[in-house]
Amino acid sequence: MTPEPSSLRIPAEALRRQIMLVLAAWGMAEDQARITAERMVEADLRGVDSHGIANLPLYDEFRRGGHVNFRANVRVVRETPVTALFDGDGGLGHYPSTLAIDLAIEKCAQAGLALAVVRNSNHYGAAGVYVLRAAEKGFIGLCGTNTYKASIVPTFAAEPMFGTNPLAFAAPAKRNPPFVLDMATSTAAIGKFKLALMHGKSVPEGWAVDEQGRPLTDPARAIALRLITPLGGTRELGSHKGYGLAAMVEILSAILPGALATPVRVRASPAGLFDIGHFFLAIDPGCFREKGAFEADLDAMIDVLHAARRADPGQPVLVAGDPEIAEIEARTRQGIPVPRPLLDAIRAIAEAAPCEFVLQARG
Amino acid sequence: MTPEPSSLRIPAEALRRQIMLVLAAWGMAEDQARITAERMVEADLRGVDSHGIANLPLYDEFRRGGHVNFRANVRVVRETPVTALFDGDGGLGHYPSTLAIDLAIEKCAQAGLALAVVRNSNHYGAAGVYVLRAAEKGFIGLCGTNTYKASIVPTFAAEPMFGTNPLAFAAPAKRNPPFVLDMATSTAAIGKFKLALMHGKSVPEGWAVDEQGRPLTDPARAIALRLITPLGGTRELGSHKGYGLAAMVEILSAILPGALATPVRVRASPAGLFDIGHFFLAIDPGCFREKGAFEADLDAMIDVLHAARRADPGQPVLVAGDPEIAEIEARTRQGIPVPRPLLDAIRAIAEAAPCEFVLQARG
């Protein structure tokens, strides 16, 4: 992807260092800051621009609003050989989520199956980076999170009740990169509205509605109203399924660990820490298949999908994870495109933190 | 729901008995026939007309085509304290699926978490009835299946690669009935096309496409071509998410147990037994929450959703499982509506089996 003319290409390592410097200046312990920065820059490398360094201004806003604890004492509060409950102590979600998926992987390696959940957490960035850790160890990963702000309007409703409640799933292949699905359960992620706004484009009919439930195509109004459709868009095209998936993610992410469910938050509008929740499931295919058989069968499926007859001869059929792999290769080589306004915002954040500003365009 | 004028209301017990008589005449052991009939009639009671007794003619077709083994020796082939792999021996899926979810529930009661998968199986009816068994025991249930026939066209492709790969999820509440999501990962289930055809209606644009990828609204052609869209409908409205979900269900249902993945089947077109797979996950909220806390929080969420501001004052906001609860009450009282053509088909099946024909309209 060519960066926007107003973007600079910055090496991943510099972004990681900048995020660490800011988080440390905000009071976060070194290991937490390092892991948080790693997860954020992994999102940037994968092309998920909305969930990497672009979130630093959002986290600054949370900080100033008293919604996040940068001195969090993350701990396991309940545990069995196949389950674990983490308390995030109000901190950002990346660090407890990394501990949680890694503990699920560890337990899965022993028992074949494990589920770790996190309560009292906050925004955890891109869901895909957590399940990818499971796939890299040879396990299937499934995860999700609820969010701090409602935006999905249930079918037949006129107010938002769920965040975009993303679901991510990864499975290991052998010849192919892992299958990695990372999707908001809304028709479109909030980041896509922001992207349309930035490019001065309207959004497709079916992504958002106004207070009367009529389709809304102006991204600025859509972001302001935050009335977005569940996957499916309309009742006729299956929005009750997207709504059901958003509710499923809410139940597993928030109600299971005992975090605050977004619909309840909508009614109560509590101040202070957000109390967001996440879940992380790991499955060992080795409990069911001979060594290598799962990966070989997944490779065979991926190959058939790639070879499927195309609707447009010039557009290959993709498998979940393909676009991110292409981005990782390009961005590792060329650096990560950072729009100038974001760069300016980060410079201001660094000055206020205060900490060193280390972002410079690649050679 | 008022039955179509051409439908008769038949008590659930008569349908159960009729299905058992037919399956037994086809060679199925008594316990397997009883359990299969129970699952099928549960679907009918829940209003899922496409997955109850209406499937008997389909199973007869499978039988005549040599695609199902009515003398299946279902067994556990691999097992750990939290996992189990069943071999369905080519029989219908309802019986091994019931054993699998019940074993997952049993292991979950011991360990807090369990996953049972089935290979070498066949059509298992309605996904919702299996996860409901978990919710009735106080556990969260998640399940899915792949299918014998491809119909979902991946984003950017021009041929079908996945079945409608349904996903079902249930969670126990206390004051409210369980949350039960049961959804095809296509925009619409095949049954909805058949319903439109039966009523002489066209289907909405976005449900199916023709060989050139153009929207198709004629249900007869859509059923014949079987090129249906993943949830989302078009790339612009998120079909890549529905496609990703269908692939996720395929990986968990077919590749994990070692059944035949549908895309591979599309290429190979093997004759004989279908080798379909299913997965069943059970989670004990008691590993994470104090007794009753999960159910109370889910009740609170469901209550807020029911009380959400309505887009149309006359149309309440529903929660997954609500429509089925209403059907169960009505159909238990009034009987299950069976269209006359289906009744005639079952009479013919009973005569050919041969077995007694016991279906009579209610009083």
Question: Could you explain how this protein is built, in words?
Answer:
Two copies of one chain form a homodimer. With 363 residues, chain A is of the alpha+beta class. Chain A has twelve helices and eleven strands. Chain A has helices at 12-25, 30-45, 56-64, 94-111, 128-136, 190-198, 219-225, 239-255, 262-268, 293-306, 322-334, 340-352, and strands at 7-10, 75-79, 83-87, 113-121, 140-145, 167-171, 179-183, 208-209, 215-216, 276-283, 336-339. Chain A is globular. The model of chain A has no long low-confidence stretch (mean pLDDT 95). In chain A, the strands form three sheets. Chain A has a seven-stranded mixed beta sheet, sandwiched between helices. Chain A has a two-stranded antiparallel sheet with strand order 1-11. Chain A starts with 6 loop residues before the first strand and ends in an 11-residue tail after the last helix. Chains A and B meet through strand 4, strand 7, helix 8, helix 9 and helix 10 of A and strand 4, strand 7, helix 8, helix 9 and helix 10 of B.
